[in-house]
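Figure 6 in text form: structure in, sequence out.
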């Protein structure tokens, strides 16, 4: 079993992640609201996997997500898994949803802040993975998930997402990339 730390463990995505890790018998430490980015590096040290489901509505997104990514990389944790966002996935080869002409301008700063954090991971030597849930995140537990292209109308429950993340913890199939996750028929 893995030794896992979950940052943002009190949030909508974090709670099911902690529950799923605990249910599967992993040694899991739940860190609630942002402990302070400087502390994150210390808190993640010594763990096999750090899962980041953090969000701070009061912070500048670019500063927050780059600092969080830098702290996780600096911790030396063996693997970093970040809860990503759908608009950073490609809607056609080389084109992310956030870059499309009709993407709402008011949502761009948050999305580009996330992207800046991904860029920090990409420029590191860390073993990282960004798992981005379907556009309709929330809803009913389907009991199955699929990895790959995600359509804007696709949905994914928080519980199905937690299963997908823990499957990746236990059987790593992706590294140094961003993937989409959606519900699938059970």
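Output sequence:
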């Amino acid at each position: 079993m893995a030794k896992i730390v979950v940052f943002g463990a009190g949030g909508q995505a974090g709670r099911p992640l902690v529950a799923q890790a605990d249910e599967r018998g992993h040694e899991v430490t739940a860190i609630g609201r942002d402990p302070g980015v400087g502390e994150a590096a210390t808190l993640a040290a010594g763990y096999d996997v750090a899962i980041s489901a953090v969000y701070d509505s009061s912070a500048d997104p670019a500063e927050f997500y780059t600092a969080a990514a830098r702290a996780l990389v600096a911790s030396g944790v063996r693997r970093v898994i970040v809860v990503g966002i759908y608009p950073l996935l490609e809607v056609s080869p080389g084109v992310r949803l956030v870059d499309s002409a009709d993407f709402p301008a008011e949502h761009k700063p948050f999305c580009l802040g996330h992207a800046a954090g991904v860029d920090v991971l990409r420029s590191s030597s860390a073993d990282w993975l960004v798992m981005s849930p379907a556009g309709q995140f929330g809803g009913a537990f389907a009991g199955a998930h699929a990895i790959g292209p995600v359509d804007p109308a696709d949905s994914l429950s928080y519980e199905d997402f937690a299963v997908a993340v823990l499957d990746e913890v236990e059987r790593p199939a992706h590294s140094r990339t961003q993937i989409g996750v959606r519900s699938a028929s059970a």
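Caption detail: The longest strand covers residues 177-183.
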